[in-house]
Design a protein that fits this description.
Chain lengths: ~210, ~210, ~210, ~210
DNA sequence: CATGAATGAGGTTTCATTCAT
DNA sequence: TATGAATGAAACCTCATTCAT
């Protein structure tokens, strides 16, 4: 997707590095002030680029949204692969714990990305919206797989796999989205451990007796 | 807060009704297209008001955000009171179930409010941001109270009350925020029942054995 | 063509009058300073409209070119009809004389239109280019018809009708295009009479003997 | 005029050749797309020069217009001299025929010069405008001289020498300016022969009887 | 000498807001 | 009271020009 963005430069390395710079600063600023409250000028100031320079590496302000989206690859690099890599050697419980932790840590590492996608997605062009939701869906799908395996092995007992997977993913994302609240009460470590605990409680086989339903 | 918004009209009833109209239509439109992609003109068209007329009842486009926030009272009307009203007559479990259900239904009734607050809050003036978060915090506090009571009565066993309350609230809100995903998999009824089930599982006293944490 | 131009106004009469105003002033300015040396601001100043007001009646600066083209109808109104109306009552010679005169006078009345089309046509969108050339072609065709009739009646003797028609039309247009030169040497009256004389000389039946060819 | 254009180079030969290159390519491009739709970048691409290199040989984009004008010398090289050189040996008719032909051929050889001067002259600085019109005026003057001689010798009979000279020159220029029309109907050879014929008809001594004037 | 990355002035366009009717 | 025509501030974007390499 990034390939199609206009540039006046032919130095591929430079283009790449400038775009990374732009995406990083802009994601931060968009998450903080919103896409429409951030001018190209300001982004330029933040990156130490002139307004005109920016337009050597993008064609449109909207393209910055594309850049940010394409930086998601960095954020998720290895997440989906690693999660499943050791599937055989580890128990489902271990895998789940590992993935929940990893997921939360990644969210914490680039919180602006998550906030961005919750908040600014509407201003992005449709392909970007689709792409971002795709990531989300993939994450849910990963956890579905893990849960399914755990159920088959008898480690887990889950009524609705999709629902639990969704809760896990949303739970991780909240760390970025509801920062203002969560940071007041938890450290990252605490939050992660709570998420893990909660998750395991939701899936553990010897279910507590729920009196009504 | 709404009191301070400029109006050229002296007919209080008219002011009120016009503002309700504005808030309703605008909330919808902002949730759909975003604050900055919705022009005053369009809002006027949607409400059947001329652009000029709108400015008889507000001073600034931003004021519409204030109106929307103050309409939240309608959304939450009775929620906090009812939740606690029958505290004595009902068990904590019953109260919890009731409140989770009620919460989800309210989110479902005006999804644009929730989406609005997740997505457009950044464009609102600080007092409005604070006010909106206040609602959120109040909801969390309500569930904290319920959980605390349940713990004291021995019905529940919860490690971290705040965390669970937060999960409940976020879970409800997700119904509006992740519509695009959840509607594909669940009806409102299913979602609510899953939320309730999950919640109870998280708090039930005869806990499942979690191996690590 | 004008129909498709964006406007925010619904008052059709107003739209029309504003657009006429714009077209007139802009044609003048474009002919004088060129499309690209004339800012929308300046056009606004000239018409006594604010920059923003202009954009209530057009969507794009380019649209002004469309407006100008569509004002050509006014310039040519009646030209093609009248020319042929009295075809039966008048001799071909009389008709020719009349049309040449009329053509020159029209060019003189709105010289900026002709200069515009010689000079700025390249900046106009393709449909406008086509439309303008269409007018030119129609004018040539009119003279072709007159010449053909004269030839049949024996009044004229013309080798290449198209060529002569082209010369007549270009000759008239030059009055606007080469103003800077022609005005130094001729008045409009003189120019017209010279054009007529030249034309008749080119078509008269008792041809002079051209010694070589 | 060209002398005054800034250069950072001291190698006069290089400067000259670079400028010729620039003028040729740019004239073409300006005639095709217009001065303002042609970027310095594009001119550089066309000539195989870097954008920066161009600015070693000119000071301003406008200077390219100066270069183009000064390349007109090439176009007209010999035209004025040759025309009059054999004035004594040839009849006025022969001279006239020769010059009309030569004029048309030169227009055809570098049509972009003519189109350029009809269309982009307004974007050129005043001295250039004056210079270009000077060429035009010189051409008219040349034909005036020829016509005058022919009148004196009795070969021609012309009412208004200036007018006829103007018609000849414009007629030649039209071959470049109204290409889109003329090429559909004539080859260069046909056009030239028609121009010659027409010219001779306009000046021949045993005039046809024109009934009015 | 040649290059192209960087710059910012200046243009177009949008849209919240005012104000006369 | 209701309207929408008028406005201009402020945003995006282009591109001539400079300058370090």
């Amino acid at each position: 997707m990034e390939r199609r963005i206009r540039t006046y430069s032919t130095d591929e390395g430079l283009v790449k590095s400038r775009r990374v710079q732009l995406a990083l600063y802009a994601a931060e600023m968009f998450a903080d002030k919103g896409y429409h409250n951030t001018t190209v000028q300001e982004i330029g100031d933040a990156c130490g680029m002139g307004k005109g320079t920016i337009y050597h590496y993008i064609g449109t302000k909207e393209d910055i949204l594309r850049l940010i989206e394409s930086k998601a690859t960095v954020l998720w690099e290895g997440f989906f692969e690693e999660g499943l890599a050791n599937f055989d050697k580890m128990s489902a419980t271990e895998t789940l714990r590992h993935c929940v932790e990893d997921f939360c840590r990644r969210v914490d590492k680039y919180p602006s990305f998550t906030r961005f996608w919750y908040q600014e997605i509407r201003y992005a062009p449709p392909e970007v919206q689709r792409a971002i939701r795709e990531w989300d869906t993939r994450a849910v799908a990963l956890f579905e797989k893990i849960l399914a395996k755990g159920c088959m092995s008898g480690e887990f007992k889950v009524d609705d796999i999709t629902m639990v997977a969704h809760i896990i993913v949303s739970g991780g994302e909240m760390w970025a989205v509801k920062r203002w609240f969560l940071r007041k009460h938890f450290t990252l470590k605490e939050y992660i451990s709570a998420q893990v605990k909660m998750t395991l409680r939701l899936v553990c086989a010897n279910e507590c007796i729920v009196k009504a339903g």
